[in-house]
Amino acid sequence: MVRLNIYIFFFLVYPFILLTNGYVPEKLHLTVYYESKCPDSKKFILEQLQPTVELLHKYVRLRLIPFGKSMSIDYGDEGFQCQHGPTECMGNLVQDCALKYMRKHNDVQRVNYVVCEMELEAGAMGNLGCVKHARLPTDDVERCVSTGEGIALQLDSEYHTNSLKPQFIPSITINGVFDQQIQESALVNLKETLCSYLKEAQPCAHYYNNKVWEYLFYSP
């Protein structure tokens, strides 16, 4: 019976592997709404976003929006009020400014920078250590943080976040669309969630093929 299953596997799956080899589908637009000191954001970015982007960066275009459940006061003239306190407001601001200067960096580099901030909370403490580690122009980032430039970036992040009206942070959209089932799936397995859209992408084909092998040989 096992041998028959193997034959079925190669008959059905192996041609699919050959067809998907080298195939590059249209990129998914993945947007992540998060907060700099949010434990759930940290868990998602470290455990789900970073490994998934490393695997699927050729197939995804990522946007990171550090704002979450924050709120501007008098259109930013009086600063911002943040869910986890004033240091989170600083962390959001530093990340928004740093990400501005990473627009020509690839998604892996940008996620690695955010991972540093989420792990160390450097920006939230007014420390530009993660900015330096990412080899960004610290003087420019510091100027952005201390002037209206950073406030304008946070107001833009507020606008996009309020347009979504997320009930939970972090939240994600795919191709600009929020779906509660996709959200719940992404929080526990972002790779599998994105692969459900990218089945013909080689890393996803490999992922599903491994699932088939596990089913054939390890199912009771």
Automatic annotation (TrEMBL):
Pfam families xref list: GILT
Keywords: Glycoprotein, Membrane, Transmembrane, Transmembrane helix
Molecular functions per Gene Ontology: oxidoreductase activity, acting on a sulfur group of donors, disulfide as acceptor
Entries under InterPro entries matching the protein: Interferon-induced_GILT (IPR004911)
Keyword flag Membrane: yes
Bilayer-spanning residue ranges: 6-24
Keyword Transmembrane: yes
Family named by the database record: Belongs to the GILT family.
Protein name as annotated: Gamma-interferon-inducible lysosomal thiol reductase
The organism of origin for this protein: Parnassius mnemosyne
Source organism phylogeny: Eukaryota, Metazoa, Ecdysozoa, Arthropoda, Hexapoda
